Amino acid sequence: MELQQLKNRFHDLADRSYTQGVFTFTGFLGLGEQDAFWQEEQKLKYAGYTVYGGCENADRVMVRFGSAEELGYEVPFPIVCIHIRPLVSKFADDLTHRDFLGALMNLGIDRSTIGDIKVGEKQAYLFCQDTIGEFICENLDKVRHTSVKCSVTESAEDLVQEEPEIVCVQVQSVRVDAVLAKVYNMSREKSLELFRSGKVFVNGRLCENNARTLKAGDIVNARGHGKFRLEEGTRETRKGKLAIEAAVYR
After folding, report:
1. Which has the closest alpha carbon to 126: 51, 226, 28?
2. Other CB atoms within 10 A of residue 33 CB
3. Nearest 10 degrees: Cα torsion 190, 191, 193, 197
4. What is the C-alpha to C-alpha distance for residues 123 and 203, in angstroms, rounded to an integer?
5. How far apart are CA 117 and CA 233, in angstroms?
6. Is 104 strand, coil or helix?
7. In percent, how much of the chain has pLDDT > 70?
8. Which residue blocks in the chain are alpha helix, DSSP H?
9. Residue 188: its pLDDT value, please?
10. Burial category of 36 from C-beta neighbours within 10 Å (exposed 0-12, middle 13-18, buried 19 and up)
């Protein structure tokens, strides 16, 4: 969807929620689409909104327009979690995120109906819109060369919690480019190239200012590398540098 069309869609959903007194939902939004939402956020907040992707720290999220406090009732996000696992584990391939996503796209599913895919050992948990869940369970029977079975699972958020790796690094400052370069052990120039090519997002927003100062709790997503969250407890070393900790999600 073109950027302006997407922004228009946000305004249509917000207006319908506000005028009709109902909750409305976007499809799942990637990072670039989330940035389009945040660009319009001030103009949309009159309707009230909540952002959620089915689990904590989801990369792909939906926006629900409407306020439970204002509307006087609650409607959950139309998201289900599907457990995809091999029929015979010992014969299963070591499957990647790309393998699972490719198998889903081969079913002709619209990308906006698919959220995060949390990949474990030869299995995955898929967040998707509830309208497509049954179709996936009935039709997704193979991922690469591995025969699989799918079922909707409850308490999904408890099942797919990612344990980040805590990385300790020393930086001159908590500028986002400096922290990113240290966390991913890359040169400052390579870090800057990520900004120039529009691949760095902070808290779901495109970050074009590489000198931006991070604060504890900020989540940085660098396309092609992963994401990390800056932790509490920055301290100064004897040599005048800052020792920081980042929770890195690979």
Report:
1. 28
2. 22
3. 140
4. 28
5. 31
6. helix
7. 96
8. 3-20, 31-44, 68-71, 97-105, 130-139, 156-159, 176-183, 188-196
9. 87
10. buried
Q: Which two tokens stand for residue 204?
A: 């779901």
Q: Considering the entire predicted model, what is its pTM? A: 0.86
CB under 8 A, 24+ apart: contacts of 113-118:
113/27, 113/28, 114/28, 114/60, 115/28, 115/53, 115/54, 115/58, 115/60, 115/61, 115/62, 115/79, 116/53, 116/54, 116/55, 116/58, 116/59, 116/60, 118/55, 118/160, 118/162
Q: How far apart are CA 239 and CA 242, in angstroms?
A: 9
Which residue type is seen at 244? Answer: I
Query: What domains are defined for the chain?
Result: 3-71 (3.30.1370), 79-159 (3.30.70.330), 165-249 (3.10.290.10)
Question: For residues 217 and 230, is the Cβ–Cβ distance under 8 A?
Answer: yes
pLDDT in tens, 179-207: 999 999 999 899 999 999 999 999 999 99
**Residue pointed to by tokens 């030869």:** 122
Q: Which residues pair with 83 in a beta bridge?
A: 125, 151
